[in-house]
Design a protein that fits this description.
Radius of gyration: 25 Å
Structural class: mainly alpha
Distance between the termini: 34 Å
Strand content: under 5%
Helix content: over 70%
Strand order of the largest sheet: 1-2
Order of helices and strands: EEHHHHHHHHHHHHHH
C-alpha cells in the first residue's frame, strides 16, 4: 500500500493520492499539447477557414451573399422554425420531467425510452417517417390533398421534423436535475395549502430555472443547425423551404463558394453566441447548485 499511495500535504490537511495522478509535469504538458493539437486541427482550424473563405473576395461580396433574397428567406425560415419548435419542446420537456420525477405511474420507463428515441434514430429516418405519414401516398396524404392542407414541402413539415429531433434536450436536462432535488419542497408546500400552479411557479421553477435555460439553449442550437430530417421533408424549394444549412448545401453544389461560406459563417456566429450563453448559464447553474449544497 505504501508503494501505491503518495501523500500530499496542504497546510494542515493531508490527502492520500494514487501515484498515477502524481506524474511528472512533462507528462501533463504532453497530454495538454496533444489535446490542444487535436482541437486545433479538428475544430479551430475548420472554423477559421470558414471565415477566411467567406471574406476571400471582400466584404462587399460577403454582404451581397447574405442580403440575397434566397439567403434572407433561408435565415427567416430557420429563425421561424426555431421560434416554433423550441417553445413546443419547452412545454413537452417541462410536462415530461414533471410527470416522471413527481409522480408514480405505469409506463414511466417506456416514456423515458421514447424520450431518448431521437438520439437513436437517424434524422434522415425521422424525415422519412413524416414522408410516409403525410406524403402523397402516405397514410394521411390523400385526405390532406383533398382538404388542400400542406404538411410536406412547407413550414409545418419542417417544424415537425425539427421538433422530433430536438424534443429530448429540455426533458433530458430537467429529469436528472429534478430527480436529484426530490419532492420534499413540493410536499412541504402542499402541507401549507399551496395548489399545483402556485407550487410550480414558487417552488419548482426557481429550483430548475438554470437547468431549464440550459436545455432551451441546446434545443435552439440543434434546431437552427438541423440538416438531415429537414432535408427530407423540405423539398429544397429555393427561396421557400430552404433553411440555412440547406441553402449552404445548394450554394456549395453550385460552386458558389463565397455565398456558401458567407452563410456558413453566419451559422458559426450563431453557434459561438449560443456557446457563450451556454457557458454563462452553466456557470450560473453550477454556482446555484453549489450554494444550494451549502
Amino acid at each position: 500500500m505504501a508503494g501505491y499511495v503518495a501523500t500530499v500535504k496542504t497546510g494542515s490537511v493531508s490527502t492520500d493520492r494514487p501515484r498515477h495522478i502524481t506524474e511528472p509535469a512533462v507528462v501533463k504538458w504532453i497530454l495538454i499539447a496533444i489535446a490542444l493539437l487535436f482541437l486545433g486541427f479538428l475544430l479551430v482550424l475548420p472554423l477559421v477557414s470558414v471565415f477566411v473563405e467567406a471574406f476571400r473576395k471582400g466584404s462587399e461580396v460577403y454582404t451581397a451573399a447574405l442580403s440575397d433574397p434566397d439567403a434572407l428567406s433561408a435565415i427567416k425560415l430557420t429563425l421561424m422554425t426555431a421560434a416554433i419548435a423550441v417553445p413546443l419542446n419547452l412545454l413537452f420537456g417541462l410536462a415530461a420531467a414533471w410527470a416522471i420525477t413527481k409522480f408514480r405511474f405505469k409506463g414511466k420507463n417506456l416514456l423515458i425510452t421514447l424520450i431518448d428515441l431521437p438520439f437513436a434514430v437517424s434524422p434522415v429516418i425521422a424525415g422519412l417517417i413524416y414522408v410516409l405519414l403525410f406524403g402523397a401516398r402516405g397514410w394521411f396524404g390523400p385526405w390532406l390533398a383533398e382538404h388542400d392542407i400542406k404538411i410536406l414541402f412547407a413550414l409545418p413539415g419542417i417544424v415537425l421534423a425539427t421538433v422530433f429531433v430536438t424534443f429530448p434536450f429540455v426533458a433530458r436536462e430537467l429529469i436528472p436535475l429534478m430527480q436529484s432535488q426530490g419532492v420534499q419542497e413540493e410536499e412541504a408546500a402542499v402541507t401549507l395549502g399551496a395548489k399545483g400552479w402556485r407550487i410550480f411557479w414558487k417552488v419548482t421553477l426557481p429550483n430548475i430555472k438554470w437547468g431549464l435555460l440550459y436545455g432551451i439553449i441546446l434545443c435552439n442550437a440543434r434546431a437552427m443547425g438541423e440538416f438531415g430530417a429537414v432535408s427530407v421533408v423540405s423539398g429544397h424549394i429555393r427561396g421557400s423551404t430552404n433553411t440555412m444549412p440547406l441553402h449552404i448545401q445548394i450554394l456549395y453544389n453550385e460552386y458558389n463558394f463565397a455565398g456558401s461560406f458567407a452563410m456558413a459563417s453566419l451559422l458559426v456566429l450563431l453557434a459561438v453566441v449560443t456557446l457563450a450563453v451556454k457557458s454563462i448559464v452553466e456557470w450560473k447553474f453550477n454556482a446555484a447548485k453549489h450554494q444550494g449544497g451549502e
